[in-house]
Write a structure and sequence with these properties.
The complex is a heterodimer. By secondary structure, chain A is an alpha+beta fold. Chain A is built from 9 helices and 9 strands. In chain A, strand 8 and strand 9 form a beta hairpin. In chain A, helix 1 runs antiparallel to helix 2, helix 4 packs antiparallel against helix 5 and helix 5 packs antiparallel against helix 6. By secondary structure, chain B is α+β, with helices and mostly antiparallel strands. In chain B, helix 9 packs across helix 11. Classes of the chains: A alpha+beta, B alpha+beta. Chains A and B meet through strand 3 of A and strand 1, strand 2 and strand 5 of B. Bound molecules: copper (II) ion.
Chain lengths: 373, 411
């Protein structure tokens, strides 16, 4: 199958690819070497392709393999794909990186397919045999790529749909799509003789539906809730005030499952805040906490209504002249619920004019002083 | 001819055997004698407090039982070896098993183990108790030293939290509960004379009971491999009588006073402000403008902490309790003092004539040369510019003189 010259050149290509990978992995920051090695690899790869295509330019081999009365070969799609790739690369250079990369992928894929097809078509005069030769070489590459593309075609549009519709609608859509797939599977299983065109048609309708939905979803944008939360930075910021926060307090945890020996348990009992430090049994209003260590406390709300525990631990100059108050808090929890608060305080108490405190927002006269030595 | 050489070989062989057995005997003698070493402060066989005593009370009978079982087993093997030695006798009749013996030999060890198990669990639960605590101390491990801080506990005169390092000071005869955590990797606190080990794990608080019967110093070391200088991450627990402890607390609560105007120590203070305060806190130290100097180890040290030096000279050792702040003789006076004398000597701290200048200077000159640390200024990329340990600050001998004079005032 492979002629001697092409074997040699393919070998050199592979070797230079390995060297390139090693070079990138081991020598960092040297761009010149990467350019040189990849140029070598590309050039040798091109030569390998040519040698493969024209069977080392050995006329005799070709003559024997393809006698004059051979069936003429079919037309090929791959030159077109390669050309589109090149054009896309050009467009990509002036528009967007993604277009360039897609073009590159198209070019490489088209070129490889083209070479393999050309090579296989001159293998013998039997078309069927030629196709099987091509398949043996290219299928292990084609199938995984096609499968990945197929999965992406389903996953990407579907995720766009789910982000666009509301949470309840999302659940319903999920159930409906699941049912539809199941129903389709049952039908195909019960009627194995169903016409191939019908099966393909149904699948195509499904695929088009998903893609169309995805496009619609992407253009509709994310649902308002997500957009708003993102804009107002709810994912990054805890809202530690007296008010219940729409996002931060959403779905508050009510029970502590990991009791990893917290340093203290802080209870809000009948409107009074008190702390019990591990090992010290009497309730206290001042606790000591190690500096620069991750510390956890449990907060239990034993007072009517919803409350949170907030820790204030000084200020920090985030920029020249911009001082930010440092605080963290639990979510708002109902009476009888509990939550863990984990924090780390980097400055000793003496660094701050105001004492560090635990408090319950909205309850002014109750606080626990936190001393950091 | 052949016979001859065989004989010679045999002679040589027996010589080798003899040598090997002599060496083995020598080694085991050394090992045995080491067991009798007098100066073995980390000996697990000498409990000095009720918690260690509990472990001892458990392990001694277990060792005894194990020893008896071992002797019986070896005796049985020896008996079988001699009794059934091949003397050319015919092979005895072969039987298949002996159910009574087999069942018995299964049940007997199970019963022994269950018995040991009951006592073991009882001891484990006893040692995990926290509800009889009389005093708590936070213990924080980091590469490669221990920090201790004492939450406010008025009954002991601790009206403000106390912070120290290396030497843990406790009142004797008091049930102390350590609350251990770590700032970087897992460490383990172990004072063999006072209790078993307990890991200090980042993000968790583990408790360890500690109680010493008598005043004295009890040595230990980190027992969880924690990196480069694990071997010199030591610690000492110092037990003082209740009165002495109260005196110690009083001393620790005071702030560092500024050295007298124009003294060498005062020049040392300004070197300290320039070079050291970015990592080391000295409570009471003021910047030139009169505002309190606040250390920022969280920006300079990987673990986020460096020893608080306010009362450096109240401890006997430094840098993970691995080097002495006391000269040899003074250290001996403290360590070997009777339990009545001990408190007074310990509370004297490091006086001028007792200060071990050699090691302290060596430390200031080039700390990583004394204690291997990841503190090479050219290799800080991985740690985001932070040192693991104390770097070599390239101080001049002049500055070191001043610093030593200043540090000596931190009593
Ligand atoms: Cu350690």
């Amino acid at each position: 199958m492979f002629t001697n010259g092409s074997k040699y050149l393919i070998g050199v290509t592979g070797f230079s690819a390995v060297v390139l990978v090693l070079y990138i992995a081991l020598v960092d920051g040297a761009v010149g070497g990467v350019v040189a090695l990849s140029s070598i690899m590309l050039a040798v790869g091109l030569l390998a392709g040519l040698a493969l295509f024209n069977r080392d330019g050995d006329v005799q081999v070709g003559d024997v393999a393809a006698p004059a009365n051979a069936e003429s070969v079919g037309s090929s799609l791959w030159p077109l794909v390669s050309t589109v790739g090149i054009v896309a690369m050009g467009i990509g250079l002036i528009t967007h990186e993604i277009v360039f990369l897609l073009g590159l992928v198209g070019l490489v894929a088209g070129f490889v397919e083209w070479v393999i097809q050309g090579w296989s078509e001159s293998a013998s005069s039997d078309r069927r045999y030629n196709a099987s030769v091509r398949g043996r070489l290219i299928h292990p590459l084609e199938f995984p790529v096609l499968a990945a593309v197929g999965a992406a075609v389903i996953v990407v549009p579907f995720s766009r749909i789910m982000l666009a519709i509301s949470k309840t609608a999302g659940a319903i859509v999920f159930i409906l799509v699941g049912c539809a797939v199941l129903a389709g599977g049952v039908v195909f299983a019960l009627r194995p003789n169903l016409k191939k065109t019908v099966v393909i048609g149904l699948c195509a309708v499904g695929a088009v539906g998903v893609v169309a939905g995805g496009i619609a979803g992407a253009s509709a944008g994310k649902r308002d809730q997500l957009v708003e939360a993102n804009e107002e930075d709810h994912f990054a910021h805890k809202e530690c005030g007296e008010e219940k926060s729409k996002y931060f307090d959403f779905n508050a945890e009510a029970k502590v499952s990991m009791r990893s020996n917290p340093t203290a348990t802080i209870e809000f009992i009948g409107g009074k805040l008190q702390a019990r430090e591990l090992g010290l049994n009497a309730p206290r209003t001042r606790i000591t906490i190690q500096k620069s260590a991750n510390i956890s406390v449990i907060f239990r709300n034993k007072t009517e209504g919803e409350h949170r525990l907030t820790l204030h631990y000084g200020e920090k100059e985030v920029q020249e002249g911009v001082v930010e108050e440092l605080h963290t808090c639990t979510q708002m929890i109902e009476e009888g619920e509990e939550q863990i608060l984990t924090f780390r305080i980097d400055k000793p108490s003496i660094a701050s004019e105001k004492p560090y405190t635990f408090s319950v927002p909205g309850v002014d006269d109750q606080s626990i002083e936190v001393f950091v030595p | 001819m052949i016979r001859h050489s065989n004989k010679r070989n045999a002679v040589r062989m027996s010589k080798t055997v003899r040598r090997i057995s002599a060496a083995a005997a020598g080694l085991s003698a050394v090992a045995l004698l080491a067991g009798c070493a007098k100066n073995a402060p980390q000996d697990t066989w000498q409990p000095k407090g009720p918690n260690a005593q509990k472990i001892d009370d458990l392990q001694k009978p277990v060792f005894a039982i194990a020893g008896i079982v071992g002797i019986i087993v070896f005796a049985a093997i020896g008996y079988a070896l001699f009794k059934f030695k091949d003397r050319g006798q015919p092979i005895p009749e072969q039987t298949h098993g002996k159910p009574v013996l087999e069942i018995g030999m299964t049940i007997l060890p199970a019963v022994i183990l269950a018995g040991i198990g009951i006592f073991t669990f009882q001891t484990i639960f006893d040692l995990a108790k926290t509800d009889d605590t009389e005093m708590v101390i936070n213990v924080t491990g980091q590469q490669w030293w221990w920090e201790y801080d004492y939450p406010v506990q008025e009954q002991y005169g601790i009206t403000d939290p106390i912070i120290t390092s290396g030497q843990l000071v406790i009142p004797s005869g008091t049930k102390v509960l350590l609350r251990e955590t770590s700032r970087d990797v897992i460490h383990s606190y172990w004072i063999p004379a006072l209790n078993g080990k307990r890991d200090a794990v980042p993000g968790r608080v583990h408790t360890l009971r500690l109680e010493a019967d008598e005043p004295g110093i009890y040595a230990g070391q980190c027992t969880e491999f924690c990196g480069l200088s694990h071997a010199v991450m030591r610690m000492e627990t110092v037990a003082l009588s209740k009165d002495d402890f109260a005196a110690w607390v009083k001393g620790q609560l005071s702030l560092a006073a500024s050295p007298t105007e124009g003294s060498l120590a005062q020049e040392g203070e300004s070197v300290f402000l320039n070079q050291c305060v970015r990592c080391h806190q000295v409570n009471g130290l003021k910047k030139a403008d009169g505002s309190p100097a606040i250390a920022a180890p969280e920006d300079n040290v990987w673990s986020g902490a460096a020893p608080n030096l306010t009362h450096l000279m109240s401890r006997n050792t430094f840098a993970g309790a691995s080097w002495n702040l006391l000269t040899k003789q003074c250290r001996k006076d403290v360590w070997e003092a009777s339990s009545e004398e001990f408190g007074k000597r310990y509370l004297a701290g490091v006086t001028e004539e007792c200060l071990n200048q050699t090691d302290l200077r060596r430390w200031l000159r080039n700390a990583p040369a004394m204690k291997p640390m990841y503190a090479d200024p050219t290799k800080l990329e991985e740690t985001g510019g932070k040192y693991r340990g104390m770097p070599n600050l390239g101080l001049s001998e002049d500055d070191i003189d001043k610093l030593v004079a200043y540090l000596a005032t931190l009593k």
